[in-house]
Recover the amino acids of this structure.
């Protein structure tokens, strides 16, 4: 990553080839990446998809045709029609409205959880990758141990112990993702620390925290961003699964996983709409996020 | 080589130890009074206290940890409160069931995904490449419970080909049990295909670009031979790593599939245990899942190094 | 003199005062023929005798027989019947079972003294007959002779007495204590001779036989030397025997070839009970032909079954309900006007017609379900938003308030919670839901350790029972162990004791009316509906008999 193409007006330093390019070159490289991103079809498609859901999340109630909480038990499980484009659910609420407004919670929860995990994981990865030695060995064992735990089960444990709430879900997912991200960051840091600019900083007697966060971190942002977007997809998935298992967000929140959970037993009776639409929403959102991740990964590969 | 394996094994054991501590601590977090949950709501407090004392619930944590861990190593994992049986009697069959399902899923998905990935990579950027990549991506993005429900509706309820449950009636033979496992295995195939295919594809592309491949092509070897001899072997490497990591998910994380298909697997048992604050079951169950995962990754690491000498001789990772 | 009249006179001459009183009620047209048979059976008159008297003294032309033959096709011998139900929580221990899933299993290999059928008529099973003394404080049961347990030993009075002793013993913490506390104590059941048992009650009780029936599902008769571990043998005297029990998967039962009632020997060759973790997978499994019979399903979860033409659904009016308790000793429900307002805000019609597809009776905020004969005529509470707002204003709560509502994820209860949440929104009341799972909601089931008993507002499921005694007691009496509303009202306690002791229907109705009116005024618990018990069988199966409790008798069931 640090050996990316330099811009046209870079001054060639008389140092060895493993020097990090000067600031201008770095900025030029970034511009190049952005240009690639913007041209990438997958990236654009992903942004559009996710963008639509973000709009849903922000303007949900205004866009929804009905109050997503308004029950009408006498009109329950009505098939899609002019009045209810996606039909009604088992207590008579409009499915379309619930799908639209449901974007908010899942996006907030998964975004926050992934951010938390990324921040923690990056810090962890920086530390283990840079220091090596006993700290690395011990922490790496911890990370490996964490990786061995099944995410969903840990999530359920935490929720049973701490109660169902958005905060619990966010913290749990964040904590479980941190080691995974740490691994990737660590691998990247291992490469970076051999670079001359690190040695130079060490020679200058810079504080360790400076080296870690001001020197190394910017150069591993690539993999960090890729990991972030990939994990985001998993987070959405996990939040939906936890809700589906009855351990997630409380009713009557229009959470997509919860909606599928409430209605999947009814499918065999022909009531497909309360399940299909939220499920599609989950799938499309995750695909969108993955497309973005793909785009970013490709841009940083160059 | 021997030293490498030994080192890896030792590291794994350390990880395992740390894992057991983490699991123990996590399980302790659950609320609930041991004695009360065994004796039930109407029992008087004195009996509950007496039972707690007898079960060692008031012992210091390190003592409790040692009791548990020494028990696990000798095969005695305590009494499950949710199932009212020794934990090992619950975990045993559940683990076997999960293993059966995982095995069938793997047998289907691994060759399929590797073939798909390699096939896509051979014509990188082409339509079929896009198709495999995006198709795989979309399949993975769809949550497993959606696949499960869709497959049940189409194949079990509407077409009536496969049963809607994964549990064959007691006393079924091998092939009958297999039949019942096909639909849930298919769900897993959809979920895993994209990931494995992507790895295989990436590995193939990388090795197609590699020098030794170019040399082989220059030497005049037909593409098929090149693929078979060099590329396949190297695309196998990342795939092995992926397969190993997915094993943890397949053994303990299949809660949703097991729920919908009414299958008595380990994920199901763990959720049931979590819902009923069954600490002995949770502790040992999660530990087992972790052990499976670590053993799988250990084997993956070792076979990875066998296939790729550069790893074990090269820079420490 | 007319020989029939002679016979009637002879019968009346040797009948007790109580029995004559019941005959008089019937002759005076106060109770119908069906109710006459029922009342008479409770106090121990035999059904043939009652049928004769009903015709001889009869004024109404109700046909008693018509409703008892729901199945028309005759099932063939043999085959394996697969029955689907939810996984029973906890161990299968006759002393401790407290779930519908568990009780259905108990009733397969185990048997009761009395069977409470779908008409709430007590039918003799292991008891041949029973009689109360003058004031209903001692009940004498005559046992059937020659009945054998599955291990070959003959059942006698000692077995019965020890069974009831075990259940009434507080040290055993049996679920049956909810029925026996204050009624029967340890030592109250005495074996008089090999086939006679006397129950010496703590207080006179007009409905005692129901407490020895299938309604009190823990009372399957066990051998006197029973020492626990029922899951190993499933020991009992019933028409089915244990073949195999697989934890978490299911149970295989085979017919008991030595069963005492030849008319109820098993038709099928084998019964397999299959466990499902939740209702959705149960419904899917049933539709996928994994099982032939579904023990119970709810309207919301089983909609697919209600419209499926290959499924025969049985709807039984029942007393099963969901209690929504409002803690009377805590804000915001301390003032009874607030509680009345809550009850007035709920749209019961939408619940009954919408949520339950009309398969329920209206609930009028008391345990007195329409199915009970002792239920008095009291005006049905309807939704009245204006009045509710008035009451809230007079209690100083016109701005509304927030309150948490606890419950667990089962059947239609989360739907009920969300509907109530919407209904009360109109008055500015904000309900925050806390729906968890069964284990978390019930916690340790003791005050201070259980959301069920500690929450300000909670939803709890109650199964059907043949008489309202238990539901009048445990959740509502000052010393009740299930009193989530923390309702402590001395007048109420006294009225309930009077009701329980009353043997005469009129007397029961008088007390019931007072209780109903008191509860309508105080509203510690909202009873919004009594739902019908729904069970299902495939159209190729005949002979399945269920009652509203969940007991599923498939001994005469088979494939057509």
């Amino acid at each position: 990553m640090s050996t990316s193409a330099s811009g046209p007006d870079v001054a060639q330093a008389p140092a060895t080839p493993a020097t990090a390019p000067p600031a201008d070159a770095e900025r030029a490289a970034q511009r190049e990446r952005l240009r690639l991103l913007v041209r990438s079809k997958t990236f654009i498609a992903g942004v559009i998809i996710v963008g639509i859901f973000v709009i849903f999340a922000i303007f949900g109630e205004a866009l929804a045709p009905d109050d997503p909480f308004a029950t009408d038990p006498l009109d329950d499980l009505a098939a899609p029609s002019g009045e209810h484009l996606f039909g009604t659910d088992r207590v008579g609420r409009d499915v379309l409205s619930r799908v639209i407004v449901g974007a908010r919670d899942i996006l907030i929860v998964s975004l926050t959880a992934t951010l938390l995990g990324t921040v923690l994981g990056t810090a962890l990865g920086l530390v283990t990758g840079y220091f090596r030695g006993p700290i690395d060995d011990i922490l790496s064992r911890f990370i490996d141990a964490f990786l061995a735990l099944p995410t969903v089960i840990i999530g359920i444990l935490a929720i049973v112990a701490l109660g169902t709430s958005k905060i619990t879900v966010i913290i749990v997912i964040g904590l479980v993702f941190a080691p995974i991200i740490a691994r990737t960051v660590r691998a990247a840091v291992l490469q970076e620390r051999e670079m001359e600019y690190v040695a130079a900083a060490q020679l200058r007697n810079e504080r360790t925290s400076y080296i870690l966060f001001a020197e190394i971190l910017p150069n591993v942002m690539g993999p960090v961003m890729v990991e972030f977007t990939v994990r985001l997809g998993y987070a959405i998935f996990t939040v939906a699964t936890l809700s589906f298992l009855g351990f997630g967000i409380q009713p009557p929140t229009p959470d997509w996983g919860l909606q599928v959970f409430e209605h999947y037993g009814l499918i065999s009776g022909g009531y497909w709409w309360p399940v299909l639409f939220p499920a599609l929403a989950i799938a499309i959102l995750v695909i969108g996020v993955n497309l973005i991740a793909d785009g970013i990964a490709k841009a940083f590969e160059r | 080589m021997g030293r490498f394996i030994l080192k890896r094994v030792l590291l794994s054991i350390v990880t395992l130890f740390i894992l057991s501590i983490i699991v123990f601590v996590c399980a302790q977090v659950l609320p609930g009074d041991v004695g009360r949950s065994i004796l039930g709501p109407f029992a008087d407090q004195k009996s509950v206290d007496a039972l707690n004392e007898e079960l060692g619930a008031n012992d210091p944590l390190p003592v409790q940890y040692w009791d548990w861990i020494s028990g696990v190593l000798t095969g005695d994992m305590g009494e499950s409160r949710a199932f009212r049986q020794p934990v090992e009697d619950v975990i045993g069959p559940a683990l076997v069931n999960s293993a059966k399902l995982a095995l069938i899923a793997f047998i289907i998905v691994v060759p399929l995904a590797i073939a798909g990935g390699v096939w896509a990579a051979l014509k990188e950027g082409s339509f079929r490449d896009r198709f495999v990549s995006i198709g795989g991506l979309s399949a993975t993005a769809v949550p497993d419970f959606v696949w499960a429900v869709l497959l049940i509706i189409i194949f079990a309820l509407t077409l009536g080909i496969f049963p809607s449950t994964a549990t064959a009636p007691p006393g079924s033979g091998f092939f009958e049990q297999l039949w019942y496992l096909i639909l849930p295995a298919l769900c897993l195939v959809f979920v895993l295909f994209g990931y494995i295919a992507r790895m295989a594809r990436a590995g193939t592309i990388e090795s197609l670009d590699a020098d030794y491949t170019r040399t082989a092509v220059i030497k005049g070897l037909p593409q098929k031979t090149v693929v078979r001899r060099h590329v396949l072997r190297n695309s196998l490497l990342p795939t092995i790593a992926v397969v190993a990591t997915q094993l943890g998910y397949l053994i303990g994380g299949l809660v949703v599939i097991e729920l919908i298909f009414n299958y008595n697997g380990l994920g199901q048992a763990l959720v049931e245990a979590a819902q009923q604050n069954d600490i002995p079951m949770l502790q040992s169950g999660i530990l087992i899942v972790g052990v499976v995962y670590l053993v799988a990754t250990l084997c993956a690491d070792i076979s990875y190094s066998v296939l790729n000498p550069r790893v074990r001789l090269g820079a420490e990772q | 003199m007319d020989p029939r009249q002679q016979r009637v006179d002879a019968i009346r001459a040797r009948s007790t005062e109580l029995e004559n009183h019941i005959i008089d009620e019937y002759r005076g047209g106060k109770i119908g023929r069906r109710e006459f048979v029922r009342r008479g059976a409770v106090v121990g008159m035999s059904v043939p005798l009652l049928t004769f008297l009903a015709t001889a003294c009869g004024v109404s032309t109700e046909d008693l027989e018509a409703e008892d033959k729901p199945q028309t096709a005759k099932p063939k011998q043999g085959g394996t019947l697969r029955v689907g139900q939810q996984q029973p929580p906890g161990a299968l221990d006759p002393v401790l079972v407290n779930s519908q899933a568990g009780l259905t299993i108990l009733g397969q290999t185990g048997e009761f003294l009395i069977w409470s059928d779908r008409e709430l008529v007590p039918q003799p099973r292991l008891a041949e007959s029973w009689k109360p003394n003058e004031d209903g404080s001692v009940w004498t049961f005559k046992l059937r002779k020659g009945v054998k347990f599955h291990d070959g030993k003959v059942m006698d009075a000692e077995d019965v007495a020890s069974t009831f002793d075990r259940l009434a013993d507080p040290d055993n913490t049996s679920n049956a204590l909810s029925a026996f506390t204050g009624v029967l104590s340890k030592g109250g059941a005495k074996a008089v001779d090999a086939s006679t048992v006397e129950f010496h009650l703590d207080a006179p009780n007009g409905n005692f036989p129901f407490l020895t029936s299938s309604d009190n599902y823990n009372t399957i008769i066990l051998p006197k030397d029973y020492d626990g571990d029922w899951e190993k043998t499933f020991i009992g005297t019933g028409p089915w025997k244990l073949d195999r029990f697989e934890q978490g998967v299911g149970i295989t039962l085979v017919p008991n070839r030595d069963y005492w009632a030849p008319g109820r020997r098993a038709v099928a060759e084998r019964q397999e009970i299959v466990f499902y973790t939740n209702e959705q997978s149960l419904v899917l499994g049933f539709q996928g032909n994994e099982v032939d019979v579904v023990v119970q399903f709810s309207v919301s979860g089983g909609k697919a079954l209600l419209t499926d033409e290959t499924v025969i659904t049985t709807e039984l009016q029942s007393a099963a309900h969901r209690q929504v308790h409002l803690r009377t000793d805590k804000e915001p429900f301390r003032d009874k006007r607030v509680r009345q307002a809550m009850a007035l805000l709920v749209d019961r019609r939408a619940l009954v017609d919408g949520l339950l597809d009309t398969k329920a009776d209206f609930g009028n905020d008391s345990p007195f379900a329409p199915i009970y004969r002792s239920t008095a005529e009291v005006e049905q509470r309807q939704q009245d938003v204006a009045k509710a707002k008035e009451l809230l204003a007079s209690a100083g709560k016109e701005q509304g308030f927030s309150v948490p509502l606890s419950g667990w994820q089962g059947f239609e209860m989360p739907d009920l919670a969300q509907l109530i949440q919407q209904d009360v929104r109109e008055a500015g009341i904000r309900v925050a839901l806390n729906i968890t799972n069964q284990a978390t909601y019930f916690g340790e089931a003791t005050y201070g350790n259980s959301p069920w008993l500690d929450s300000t507002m909670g939803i709890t499921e109650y199964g059907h029972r043949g008489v309202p005694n238990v539901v009048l007691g445990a959740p509502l009496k000052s010393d009740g162990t299930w009193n989530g509303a923390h309702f402590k009202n001395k007048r109420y306690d006294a009225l309930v004791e009077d009701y329980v002791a009353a043997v005469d229907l009129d007397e029961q109705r008088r007390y019931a009316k007072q209780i109903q009116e008191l509860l309508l005024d105080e509203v510690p618990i909202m009873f919004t509906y009594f739902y019908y018990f729904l069970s299902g069988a495939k159209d190729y199966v005949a002979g399945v008999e269920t009652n509203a409790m969940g007991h599923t008798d498939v001994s005469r069931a088979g494939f057509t």
